[in-house]
Amino acid sequence: MIFCVSASDAPAASGAYALWLRLDGPVDVRAGKRQGVLPAGDYLYSGSARGSGGLRARLARHMRRDKRLHWHIDQLTAAATILGAFVEEGGDECALNAALEGLPIPLRGFGSSDCPRCAAHLHLLPKGAALPSDWENARKAAESSPRP
Questions:
Q1: Which candidate, 33, 47, 69, 148, has a CA 20 to 30 Å from the CA of 116?
Q2: What is the Cα–Cα distance from 89 to 82, expressed in whole angstroms?
Q3: Phi and psi dihedrals of 103, rounded to 5?
């Protein structure tokens, strides 16, 4: 696992990611027939990138503000600050999501309408909550690496 601050840091291979977002204020969201208001705070969204350009292309799309709203997560990326993404080349989004199972789910069905296993692919990261240790290690490694 690696932590990418920008999409250019991500591999062009397929895999899974957990996007780390920060909302400065509440945001109204919909997930199918469900709707809710997500309060300000940090969130982790698990997704996959299997198409052309892989993880790099998918993260570049998420990190762009100007885009057509297509996926549930686009509602947040249009309003949030993207802090980075935890990336696992060849990984599985449900496995990344499962690593976050102790964190609150703010809206059932968000990001998981095509997933029979997960209640949602979005988790709230409460202040002071710990990330899984391998995630924290990846984040610290990215912080200590010199940027070109």
A1: 69
A2: 20
A3: -90, 150
Output the six-digit token pair for 134. Answer: 């391998």
For tokens 């969201």, name the residue: 29
Q: Are strands 27-31 and 34-38 parallel, antiparallel or unpaired?
A: antiparallel
How, if at all, do strands 15-23 and 41-49 pair? antiparallel
Contact 61, 71 (CB under 8 A): no
Joined tokens for residue 122: 């979005």
| Interatomic CA distance for residues 4 and 75, integer angstroms | 21
CA 67 to chain centre: 17
Mean pLDDT, contiguous 10-residue spans, the chain (148 residues): 94 96 93 90 94 92 81 87 95 95 90 84 94 92 76
Written as one string, the DSSP assignment of 24-75 is SS-EEEEETTEEEEEPSEEEEEEEEE-STTHHHHHHHHHH-SSS---STTHH
